[in-house]
Design brief:
Structural class: mainly alpha
Strand content: under 5%
Number of helices: 16
Distance between the termini: 22 Å
Largest sheet: none
Order of helices and strands: HHHHHHHHHHHHHHHH
Shape: globular
Number of strands: 0
Helix content: 55-70%
Oligomer: single chain
């Protein structure tokens, strides 16, 4: 049975776990008590959190596109109203509870951020707002949530309304043209150095996951994708490429640094595709282990709340390593069980269903995981 016909895509929660572990490491190394002091100033340590976010982006693009295509294949149409209702219930409650707590923490003097920064974070345009200093840290991670929300506003319309091959060309065009948009906005493809290039993630990173989901459903590309998933060489090549990129990025000439995100995103796509198609392999067993699955399930809440405890230069006991990591996991678990799970039950009222009397033959079905 194809991975896309399973009730639940294997290894997906484990992939989320890898993402959040890299984010946690990238942040915890800046906190008091972290043992490996040299890595605090290492360019590699500094961009690993961004790597975790990039993997999150690729996963999100793949999953959202797959879910929309499933609904389109099964029922001949997509209810965008229900889609946005499900997305809102999935994302907004936990995030806005966090925003309320952030305002309270500012009131008691724990953190300081501007009202404009708060507005940018709460309305999902933080990625367009300058990250001024470490005092903006508490809500600064909303930049990545803003990128995803802006993606949700645009991409579902493309997948739902365009014919499949036109949607593929739209994804290719967005991937190809995004560096040009960056150039028009900033005047450069990537500034300065390789670490800066790998610290950059935006909508084009998400689109690589979208393009993978589209190609996996296209008859012309399915054969070579399945052949790719049956061999071990591609995943080892992808992992090797990532290792080389992140260990040598500081030495790349400025004129070639635009290649770094391109290679990174392609490697992440290969890694994701191989992992979900080989759950019985050693990598699949790790990704589907109970600990990995649990971290993946709470990864959204963990990403939101870790910012409270992995606070650079904050010397409070709760912000020192290792208790800050434990506190972040506890807070995320509470958020998941108290906020996310009730909202997940409410989301079932907006599940995909037939809105037209004529249905297309069911090609694939993917059941959403609690973290989708």
């Amino acid at each position: 049975m194809s991975v896309l016909t399973a009730k639940r895509i294997p290894s997906m929660d484990g992939l989320r776990a890898i993402s959040i572990v890299f984010v946690l490491y990238g942040h915890m190394r800046l906190t008091h008590g972290f043992p490996i002091r040299a890595w605090k100033i290492s360019h590699v340590g500094g961009i690993l959190a961004a790597f975790g976010v990039c993997l999150f982006f690729v996963i999100s693009g793949f999953l959202i596109t797959t879910l929309i295509l499933n609904e389109k294949d099964r029922f001949g149409n997509v209810s965008l109203r229900n889609f946005y209702a499900r997305r809102s219930l999935r994302i907004f409650p936990a995030f806005y509870v966090f925003i309320c707590v952030a305002i309270l923490l500012r009131h008691v003097g724990y953190a300081h951020f501007t009202n404009l920064g708060l507005l940018a974070s709460a309305t999902y345009w933080r990625n367009l707002y300058p990250f001024q200093d470490v005092q903006e840290w508490l809500i600064g991670h909303a930049w990545s949530l803003s990128v995803e929300e802006q993606f949700y506003l645009m991409w579902p319309f493309v997948v739902a309304r365009l014919e499949h091959r036109r949607a593929i060309w739209a994804a290719v065009a967005l991937v190809a043209l995004w560096p040009l948009l960056r150039f028009l906005r900033h005047g450069f493809l990537f500034a300065g150095s390789g670490p800066v290039a790998l610290d950059t993630a935006a909508g084009d990173t998400i689109m690589y996951g979208c393009l993978l989901a589209l190609l996996a459903r296209d008859e012309r590309h399915q054969r070579w994708l399945h052949r790719l998933a049956r061999q071990r060489a591609p995943v080892y090549a992808a992992l090797s490429a990532l290792l080389v990129l992140y260990s040598t990025c500081a030495w790349w000439p400025a004129a070639a640094t635009f290649l770094l995100p391109l290679i990174r995103n392609l490697a992440l796509v290969v890694f994701l595709w191989w992992a979900i198609n080989n759950p019985a392999a050693w990598l699949g067993r790790v990704l589907n282990s109970p600990i990995a699955v649990y971290l993946g399930v709470i990864s959204y809440s963990l990403y939101i709340w870790q910012q409270v405890f992995l606070f650079p230069d904050q010397n409070a006991w709760i912000c020192r390593f290792p208790q800050n990591v434990v506190a972040a996991i506890i807070a995320a678990s509470i958020s998941y069980y108290v906020i996310e799970q009730p909202m997940n039950r409410l989301r079932a009222r907006f599940a995909a269903h037939a809105h037209q009397p004529v249905q297309r033959p069911a090609a694939t079905t993917v059941q959403r995981s609690p973290a989708d």
